[in-house]
Sequence to fold (474 residues):
Amino acid sequence: MVQKILILAANPKTTQPLELDLEIREIESGLRRSLNREEFVIEKHLAVRTEDLRRTLLDVEPRFVHFCGHGTGDEGIVLEDTVGYPQLVKAEPLANLFKLFSNQIECAILNACYSDIQAQAISEHINYVIGMRQGVGDRTAINFAVGFYDAIGAGRTIEEAFEFGKNAIELNSLSEERVPVLLKKSHLTVISSTSTSVNIDALVQEMREKIKPYIKERCNTMRVLDMTKPIVLGDIYAEVNIEEKNTRRNHEQVSALQAIEQHGKLMVLGKPGAGKTTFLKYLAIQCIEGQFQSDRIPIFITLKDFAEESKQPDIVEYIAGELSKCKVKDAAVKTEQLLEQGKVLVLLDGFDEVREKDNSRIIKKIREFSQQFSDNKIIITCRNAATNYIFEKFVDVEVVNFNEGQIKTFANQWFYQRKSGKAENFIQELEKNQPIKKLATNPLILTLLCLIFEKKGEFKNNRSELYEELLNFY
Fold:
């Protein structure tokens, strides 16, 4: 039976020029020389508009649909309008169109940047769909297409052809072999050389048990200034509030945990000493103990350490390295499986502490990672005004100062753990001295005030002398 391959291309005015002609020629050349060349017919349509998409699918009745052009992630793939300018087509209407051809089209290939979102939507209706999980260069796109159709022409299955496409990227010394993703209609199973059928829930529980000692060792305690031994984080932690930056309405304070439940990606801003790192460590502990996001595994990354790694790994490689430290076998494979299924709580601490010379590289790595693995929860912390860069799809929030109730909670827990019984006196002294109480709204300064009061039982009346005492603890 003759199989029709419909190639659709669009490179509208004002968009970056792509080598689409070369991609199409290479596909045609490969199929012409294949052993099964008589079994394939290529139909191509350039400068595709939305109505062209519908009409060519109706007229050609293809088994394979290959789109080459631009993609923008959530905003959609880029077709052309009636005068040749960009027109975006989002995932849902595109998937609804393909649904009408679900008994006819076997495989759709979206050879465009960030097209995995559209691929996932289409895979609800089409047996096999290929998309790209991040930006993809011309050479990578062309090599993947050539490898894929060479294998199809040789009679290989779609799954095998996908692997040949990825291998073609590797053979040409390109570093984007993980960018293509193949989705199947049943259960949206992701297929790649590193990800096969797996019980993802069982894998999550296995990984949680493996990394639990490491997470508790790294995040469960904190050493405060001159204390002789660390204290358990949960023993003194007071839940923080944040406010979302929204110019259309007044800033609204909510629980930080509530904000994370509502949003997949957060940039948590705060003043020095606001408790940003403590908050991320608390999240990691709550997650690994099953109190929060218990269907994910927490990964805590200090961005300064990540940025200064000599081999400059990407975030996926770095996470695999962290799992390897926990004696996880096949850590690279399992890392990809977990990330592809959105089963990781990624905690990136201290964006402001990244050296200036590393800044652009780390921004690029975070941006690509968050786009490629968008179903995971990703939280970044940073000092206020430390960066002008805005991560797309992240919601900017700010840690707000402690309120009176949080100050009391912290003080009670602090003095209880220290067995000093001074919490009530401490709170009374704060009430007598409102300027000092105002300082206590900062978690770090509150900690210093607790230390001073524990040692001396009072505060200096002279503000400059109090400041000097605070500084002496640094």
User: Anything to note?
Assistant: The CA atoms of residues 96 and 122 lie 8 Å apart.
